[in-house]
Each structure stands twice: as structure tokens, then as C-alpha cells.
Model the fold of this input.
Amino acid sequence: NGRTYHTCIRDVAVYPQAYAAMMTEGEKIRQIPKAVGIDIGGFTSDFLLMRSGSPCLDYCDSMEKGVITMYNDIISSINSEYDMLLEEADIDSIIKGKTQYYEEAVVQAVETMVQNFVTDLLNSIRERGIDTKSTYTVFIGGGAVLLERFLEQADRLGKHTFIRDMKANADGYDLLYRMTQAGV
Done:
């Protein structure tokens, strides 16, 4: 609006994304011997292992396995196999169980590809040294909530929970920053 502003940044703090969201459940996480946070986003899935509430940065990474990459694979496959142009909204409908608007073969194909995506994601985490059967798993983010039905069906999964709050990472960053400032 015709004004010039000058900003001075005095302090910067950086925290791993899954760690921030898990800290919103800090008291519970501190009581669990081994927990992994898996934040399923658009283009990436980030994970972080926690041991009794402390981050284990040797087991922290970001993998290029997000729901947008899953959508793109499904759209391409359905177009090739069924000569049908699905959109992300169509895939979301099928994932959410609203299948009556689509051919049964297409529904089956989409559901199979989503289950394969989930299996591949959990296998990729296992390949990085974290067994989601023996580690309490905390799913974070909109992608995790969207895929909940398929995650719950996965045979690679033991005890788990979902943080459904879409602001969990932002709330966790705020909490961690305040704890840092307070010397905790």
C-alpha cells in the first residue's frame, strides 16, 4: 500500500517437523520407550524416531513419498489402463469410500494402488531401521488422516495413533520455541 517496511529478525529456531507435531502430545510421547512420527504431506513423508520423548536424529529423514506423488501415479495408471481422466477429487472420493460414482474396476484399481502406496511407505521406513510393528507410530498431517483407513489395514503396523489437528506442527513449533526461551 505504498509503505516501506523494515524487518529485523533477532532470533531463529529450527525444529524437525514431525518432532514439533509430536511435542503437542509431549507428556504421552515421553512415556513411550520408542515412538516414530510420520508426517505424510503433499510431496514428502517426514519421519523422526523418539526415544522416551527425546529425538533420535540418526533416524530422521524426508522421503519423496507424498499424497501428490501418489495421486500422479494413480491418475497416470487409470488413464493408461481404463482411458479415464481421474482428478485428485475423484481419488479422494474413492479413498473416503464414496465409490458409487465410479466403475467397480476403477475403484478396485485405485484402492489397490493406495494400499500399495501405504505398504511401500511403511516398508521404506523399515528399510531405514525403524520397524513400525514394534515402534509406537504417530501419524501426522492431512495425508495421514486421508489415508487412515488404508494405514489401519497395513500388516506392517503395530500400536499407533493419529494426530488429526492440521495445525499440530505450527502449535508444536510455538511450544518448542517457548520451551527453548524458558530454558526447558
Observations:
- The radius of gyration is 19 Å.
- Residues 71 and 134 are 30 Å apart (CA to CA).
- The chain has a mean pLDDT of 95.
